[in-house]
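REQUEST ID: PR-0412
SUBMITTED BY: lab tech R.K.
PRIORITY: routine
TASK: structure prediction, single protein chain
INPUT:
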Amino acid sequence: MRGDSAYQGIAHLHGNSETPKKKPKGGELTDEEKAQNRSISRGRMPVENVAAKVKVFKILANKYRNRRKRYTLRMALICGIINHETR
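STATUS: complete
OUTPUT:
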């Protein structure tokens, strides 16, 4: 699981998690730590972009107020539209 720097404590819950290193106060990150942060960021970028596209349809951004039974169908349709656009 890859998360941004807000999820620093997630390693206690998920052993396979990766989060970027934060710069210490009054210090600097090493070149290796910066490279690792870039690698984590590159892996998260496609996921964040797709989440942003789904939020355009407001199904994740707002409270879902329709029938629960149709949520999965509507989510699948939205994901299909997004999938079709990206190809």
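NOTES: The longest helix spans residues 31-56.
REVIEWED BY: pending
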